Fold each of these.
Amino acid sequence: MNPDFPIYSPEEQIAHPLLEEKEIRLTIKRDDMIHPFVSGNKWRKLKYNVDEMRRTQRNHIVTFGGIWSNHLLATACAAAKLGIKATAFVRGEPIDSDSLFLYKMFGMNLIYTDRQAYRDKLKLYNDYFAHDPSTYFVNEGGSGLLGARGCSETIQELTGTYDHIFTAAGTGTTAAGILHGIEQYQEQAELHVVPVLKGAAFMLDDIRRFSESMLSFQFHDEYHFGGYAKYTPELLRFIQDFTSHTGILIDQVYTGKMLFALFDMIRKDKFTRGSRICAVHTGGVFGLLGVKKNFVF
Ligand SMILES: *Cc1c(COP(=O)(O)O)cnc(C)c1O
């Protein structure tokens, strides 16, 4: 197999009138710069899974996701680069989508699955691949303990010292890894998790389990904008404002909601002046192109 991806993810301090007014130092940890397609937390979540595949001499990754999945895009591209096979169970019907096009460009094998069957991922895996010892199961979104272990390195890499660390959460695996990293490398920092979907309480258990930490953290579950991948004109306006002030693209599914939450809390004076805040840019700006028609300039 080919060598892994080198990690390039600088910390970038950003300027914005609100940050100046409230005297907040905001740094973005640019995990989105790791790779254009294997971006952000998705490579971190794959890394130890790939190690485990090598250790157990398997060369075919089998995983799960939707039509706009950052995880599938990352897996498809990473597999191509690493010289391994990839198959994805894709929820729903084939449609004309830029992501599906890219999955196929990277040579991923796609199995379209109806919503009912998609729910039981282990059954799908077993039905198709139980007897193939070359295959390796990776859960939807790359979630799990090995995924969290990779994400804790985001914190290990930090060169600055922070009072607050923010991340978006879908499965909670990234947040779990970050919590683990905070316990080891940034013990003065408080973690703030912004779930991007409705009814995110399930995540609390997974964050505990996958972080292997009892450290407390803040859970801001009122910034989901109606649910996963839902958005409002206000959120899109915020995204445009943020991007035009910083030169950093964010998306409406994950990092837009997380940074909206952070800016809302700054506006409401939830942080003392001089606070040092690090927001992790978990990548995945590709989804923004799917809603470009809804922006008003
Ligand atoms: C997948 C993804 C997340 C969610 O990560 P979890 O580990 O599932 O919580 C956050 N941000 C971006 C950009 C993502 O692609």
Amino acid sequence: MNDNARRIVANLAAVRSRIVAAAARAGRAASDVRLVAVTKYVGDDEVAALLAAGCSDFGESRPQTLWSRAERFRDSPARWHLIGHLQRNKVARTLPLAELIHSVDSPRLLTAIDAEAARLGRTSDVLLEVNVSGDASKHGVAAEGLAALVAAAAACPHVCVRGLMTMAAREGDADAARGDFARLRRLRDKTVAAMPAGTVNVQLDELSMGMSGDFEQAIAEGATLVRIGSALFEDVDLGRGN
Ligand SMILES: *Cc1c(COP(=O)(O)O)cnc(C)c1O
């Protein structure tokens, strides 16, 4: 094992134990929090090191990168999550390769995913991205628009909405982030309570929230998917031309 791989193994162990501790503090089972290793900063060697260390869920923010990674690691247990914006013209290539699309934020995108999933004879799992902070630079539907987006999803039988995703407004301010995470959880609870009877393809069990700087706060507020990149690659030399 080279130095980078050794550091990745150590970083992963540290992140996992912080997840376990944060879950314990919140009275939750650590097994209810899934780590999505965000690999957008790194090369294939680092992905391979994470896989060897037992990671199986990986997140990419650009669809094109997800395609090439998923193809390259086709014969591995890796599952690929799209965590960044998806344009409708990239839906067809993304659906067969993505385990979960975290970033659905418009009825038009839902309709495009529904049509492509129908064509493939399957359903596609998605999360609805909510801009809970109202920060204009963030993607996601406004909190006030979520009910309409859920109604649109309910009319897409080949889409299964598993939950909600958000990004905290101010990176580096974990306390402010916790407020955003609490808002997403309350919005989820409210949306579930208001769900029309007979809605079968919208279950909001998953909350994708928390990154390297604030995943413990997210777990305290109920995160089931934490998207962690930089904490896994601390002290890893990424300048080796990959
Ligand atoms: C890059 C990214 C992450 C990971 O961020 P880190 O701070 O490096 O852990 C999580 N979620 C999304 C949507 C991202 O784009």
Amino acid sequence: MIPMLDLKQQYQELKPEIELRIRAVLESGQFILGPNVMAFEQEVADYLGVDQVVSCASGTDALHLALKVAGIGPGDEVITTAFSFIATAEAIRYVGAIPVFVDIDPHTFNIDPDQIQQAITKKTKAVLPVHLFGQPADMSAIVSICHEEGLELIEDCAQSFGAHVNNRQTGSFGILGCFSFFPSKNLGCYGDGGMVSTASGELAKRLRMLRNHGCNKLYHHELIGLNSRLDEIQAVVLRTKLKQVDAYNKDRRRVAKTYNRLLSGVKLTTPYEDNRGYHVYHQYTILTPERDKVMNHLKDAGIASAIYYPVSLHKQNAFKGACKALTLSRTEQVVQQCLSLPMYPELKDEVIEEIVAVIKDALAN
Ligand SMILES: *Cc1c(COP(=O)(O)O)cnc(C)c1O
């Protein structure tokens, strides 16, 4: 069986360090927002080159907290993409605002800046791009639109840890950057986790209060907050993996390059790199009109594949009557044809050859 990702193999390599560090946490008796969380926040802020990092319980909470501190609320519109995981737009609804879905670039699958421009109304307060599958969105265009139109820029970096553009990390372009440490992400922990990055000390202060019941002094509550904190066990896993994340991303790029080479000349579309930034391949996603056939062949050969995403967000019942959408014809076409193949740093070239042989066979008959 070839899985979509193999966390067991990675764990075997990290086992001595992680088990030692987890045991130390267990013996310390300190489990929530302790010294490892504080150290991790500093280490990851240094890594990203941002002033402040505030960890929290998930990527979904990171988006929720970010929209809250940005002052987005009922009646406001937030422009985003319909080709993403639901949490991107769900968070917009949490604060009572309306997601406005605009179309994607058909090659990168990222939000199209021209479409953002067309969707701006008097109610628009923010733009929420997703660096989908690990490729940075067109940040220079998006940053200038937000600047000219006076809109807040909040980035969904759940799939782009370590991706950068001109030596600037994703998550450092907007006023707030939202990250997920769900186990399958490029930097993942052993449970749920997330964080928000920001250059603003003021926003960071509010985020720290909001993630912990709105208090800045124990049992003195300034705001209605959430219980959304990172725990010490996740923090030691993340501190261990942060040291490896560049090597992991490099290996993901090696896997993508091998797929590209082996799939050249095959009748399907391999991922497009726009060369504006450094793509970290959270997913390796092809386009093919014969998706069912390819998927079935892979399945019969014991190889996993997955559709990210089978339903675009503007068609989800959860947003019925609670979203706006421009024409999303490119999104709809990509949704019909996209197929993600196994992608993880430990994936060996010989195994990629095996996967590609099955795909070729599927398309040959
Ligand atoms: C995973 C993901 C999230 C949510 O992160 P969780 O940690 O699972 O809550 C948000 N946005 C995108 C694009 C994601 O891929």
Amino acid sequence: MQKNIQMLDLPSEYQALKPEIDSAIARCLQDQHWILGPEVKALEEACAHYLGTKNSLGVSSGTSALVISLRALAIAKKGKDFFDSEDKIITTPFTFTATGGAILQSGATPLFVDIDPTTFNLDPSLVEQALQTVPSVVGIVAVHLYGQSCEMDKLLTLSRKHNIFCVEDTAQAFGGAWQGKKLGTLGEAGAFSFFPSKNLGGFGDGGLIATGDAELAELARMLRQHGGKEKTNADYLGDNARLDTFQAAILLVKLKVVDEWNRKRQKIAERYTHAFREMPGLIPPQAQKNDSVFHQYTLRVMDGRRDALQAYLKEQGIHSVVYYPVPLHRMRLFQRMGTCFGKLECSEQMSTEVLSLPIEPLLSEEDTLRIVKEVQNFLN
Ligand SMILES: *Cc1c(COP(=O)(O)O)cnc(C)c1O
């Protein structure tokens, strides 16, 4: 009986870094600086340096990073604690729930615009059409899905032209870049998640906001901690959304290997794509070498055979996941509180075709080949 292959192998990742992580945790226990302790500050500085941005602040999750970034923009642009529901923010329906949820939490209404099937990300030409026809759009939330960059030059040109903001949902793309600049530093703000399964993952929830704008950074710092420069004197309706000291200590260790592990992901992706390129019935991800950090390796499975392939792999002990089976505009929440630009047919089609394979950075060559072989067995 062969062993099961999971999407990720977090126990092995821990074993690979155990001595350093254990001593980082032990130091926290010694010091007892739990709330915004020195590790949080050190991680913020290390991330700002790594990303090449002026300001970075740790928050309690990727969702908080998005909500706080958007609310800081509402304060900076409108002088209000929240956007109004008439304010629309363009985003993709082909993303995790939290992207749209954060827009709603900031007071605005999501305007879903369809994706380009080669990148799985917002189609800039449709964003342009939406901006020409829909009034009261205040910004764009660009999601770098599966670690693959959006076409940022086009989205930024549009946002400048229409005088709206662009926030990057970089939850799936830590370490990725667009034309030499790190993702999350191209728009007004970048929101990162340290959820355990992300490319830079902690041992629980965590997130980070990156911004080159000192005013936004200051506002975000206030919103992270009860809405004032001091906790005991609030200017805005804040939250308790601080990054935990333990998480920061662990992430400081993992930050040192994030590039190496992203390269391992790219290497696995290269092996997969090499094997799947010529297979009828499959479309491997179109990302060129290195323009994705492969948070997920996602195939399109044609001819309605996606679910059958997933079931077959499961029988062979190989886990795979559909990200995402329900586009946001099909969820009851967003049917009540979101708006759509056009029919969003591409997102709907992708939700029936996509299947993500294991892409654990420490996946062995042998296991990678076993996955390839089983996919081929199914298709033949
Ligand atoms: C994971 C994720 C989030 C939310 O991050 P959390 O840390 O889980 O709150 C937001 N957007 C996308 C695209 C994600 O993948």
